[in-house]
Amino acid sequence: MYDLAALESALSETIFSGKLHFLPLTDSTNTDAMDAARGGAPHGSVYFADEQLAGRGRGDHTWHSAVGEGLYVSILLRPRIPTASLPLLPLVAGLAAAEAIRAVSGLKVDLRWPNDLLLGPRKAGGILVEAHSESNEVGFAVVGIGINVHQRGFAPGMSTAATSLDLESGRGIPRQPLLVSLLKSLQRETLALADAAAAAIIPARVEQASTWVRGRSVEVHGPQACSGVTAGLDKRGFLLVRTDGGVVTVQTGGIRAAPTKSRDVD
């Protein structure tokens, strides 16, 4: 269980101070944050839980959220950024999560565009950003982050094998320092979105943190389904995939490693 008084103290000089909302059990922290946003909750409000009954991932996927085993948190932001910059938000959230995991566990995260946190070939976390825009500006955005921390077993049939920080590090990783580090990193990273020069290098920073966005044979799932070799990110944070028919700019969807082609042996 979290020590809420200690959390407030650790975050006293951040935008999250006095805005922590904890529930032992909830359906979805993203739903909680979205409802609160529509009700006028302020920038920097944080909603986190010990267990989710209906945790959500991108593309209507579910996120298994067993009691006390993971970090389940959603952050309400009211960034003063144009709608065109919104695709960069899950990317900076990924950078923030990767830094927090490294700082607390020493593990190196591989970012799989647009929102997966991998440790080696296995998935340890994910990001779901939901937003509401007004005219050409983002009215509010909710950044949901789920990280497997203490899990030892996972449901069969996952599209990507799963893992946890405990399994990969060989020791128990405390959730509270991870949450503090994550929120502080996210505050730093989201400030870059409002700075033109800092925002311009976000795609390049993601490329440095990912083995997936350049030179990887992938299959794209979603409305722009295709297969090819990744060729980096454009300035908006969209994925470029070089296919037999030319370069496709993937704006939405997900990627997986392309199946290895077998060769006949005489």
How would you describe this protein?
The structure is a single chain. This protein is α+β, with helices and mostly antiparallel strands and 266 residues long. It folds into two domains: 4-209, Bira Bifunctional Protein, Domain 2 (BirA Bifunctional Protein, domain 2), CATH 3.30.930; 214-257, SH3 type barrels (Roll). Helices cover 26% and strands 32% of the residues. It has seven helices and twelve strands. It has helices spanning 4-10, 29-38, 89-105, 165-169, 175-191, 196-200, 202-209, and strands spanning 20-26, 45-52, 70-77, 110-112, 116-119, 122-134, 137-148, 214-221, 226-233, 239-243, 246-250, 254-257. The strands form two sheets. The chain has a seven-stranded mixed beta sheet with strand order 1-2-3-7-6-5-4, with helices on both faces. A five-stranded antiparallel beta sheet has the order 11-10-9-8-12. A hairpin with a 2-residue loop joins strand 10 (239-243) and strand 11 (246-250). Helix 3 packs antiparallel against helix 5 (175-191). The longest helix has 17 residues, at 89-105. The mean pLDDT is 92.
User: Rg, please?
Assistant: 18 Å
Runs in which pLDDT lies below 50 for 5 or more consecutive residues are none
| Level-2 CATH architecture of the largest domain | 2-Layer Sandwich
In angstroms, what separates the terminal alpha carbons? 61 Å
Which structural class should the secondary elements be placed in? Answer: alpha+beta
